[in-house]
Write the structure tokens for this entry.
Amino acid sequence: MSVDRLSNVSKEVKPESVLLHPLGTAAAPEQELLCIFGTGDLGRSLGQRLLQSGYRVVYGSRRPHSCGPLPQGAQATSHEAAAQSAGRVFICIHREHYDFLETLAPQLKGKVLVDVSNNLKKNLYPEANAEYLQRLIPGAHVVKAFNTLSAWSLQNGPSDANRQVYLCGNSAEGKLTVAEVATKLGFTALDKGSLSAARELEDFPLQLFPEWRLPLRVAFGLTALFFFYVLIRDVIYAYVVQGKDISFRIMVSLANKVFPIVSLIMLSLCYLPGVIAGFLQLYRGTKYRRFPDWLDRWMLCRKQLGLLALGFAFLHVLYTLVIPIRYYVRFRIAANTISQIRENKTSVFDTTTAWRGDSYYSMGILGFGLYLLLGITSLPSVSNALSWREFSFIQSKLGYLTVFFCTFHTYLYGWDRFLNPSSYKWYTPPAYLLCLVVPSLLIVLKLLLLLPCVDRSLIRIRQGWERNDPEDGSAKALLT
């Protein structure tokens, strides 16, 4: 082939040839730049998380050259320059320092301002921080977000207990852009509406166990009530009537009476509102009417009631395990043994007592085992792995079985003691009899709901049937 021919072929191919580059460098889009005002713990943690998620970060600071350590890859400049360079600005400073933002109104006009601030206590200012920020810079789109997250959760990423980012604002586009950032950081954005909801979001981090307040009050009230009740019947009665000082029993013996009592009552209170709701639906003949507020609030704190009940049951187990090593118990056993030796007597083995004791311990072990199963499946990481039918079976069916085992355990503990007049000190019933009232009532009511005629009607109601349904021409009785 001649040189001329080769040159002609080269000319024919050349127009169709392309220059090859590494695919990553040619196709990589430019990273978006975000601005953060504030170089505190939250500002640095947020910047680090944004950098890890693929954003570029610039900090606006009064002293850009001496603002402390910043995440690697971030830049620091003045507030004016930082505000001009980015379309979204995160305000990670306290409200009392907002005044300088008014001078930046021209640079911040039309941009999305994400208010991350919180207050030290509720109702500290007449308006929410985000509303105040919107009034300072009316041309900006203020969005309240990320204020319910801590610096630690931003550094370590979302977890099951802290995955949601609540946001609110008057600009739909602004909220959408902030939601995109939250999603890219691994969180789930939850829109709470307009900026008027900002005060609610700012009060949220200030709440101290809001869902636990009622259960904790119930637990504290029951513990105090039964402690003083048992104290009067056991310790004070023995001192006044018999002249004995058994105050040392307060630390272990009395506590080991109070804890199982409170545990069983609170476990019953965990399931009692569901039974009451069932009878209320049967009475009304519909599921579409709201429950009373007290019942709604009661049902919303059932999980907390159950977990506290599990805690008291665990304490009961621990106190029971230390009984054999107590000085009082070892002294009583030794004294009884020596007394039998001196009198040359031998106790006769009682099969009935053996059956009662083994059954008593067996019911307690089974009840506590199911207790633990209920507590484990209530954890979000476990419940998320279960289907609704599996979760309902464990929490409902096995839950009532737990109530039955624990109640039967208490009945075996009492056995025939209620027939002994000496058990009624100062004409007061034993504490275990009082604690059996609520669980026994719960079991009886639940058995009534399980009757075929009642259960069939309740299922129909919960499937949407109404007693006075205008589309249902039949005039059948509710209980069929």
Q: What stands out?
A: The chain has a mean pLDDT of 88. The chain is about 55% helix and 10% strand. The CA atoms of residues 33 and 56 lie 5 Å apart. The longest helix spans residues 253-284.
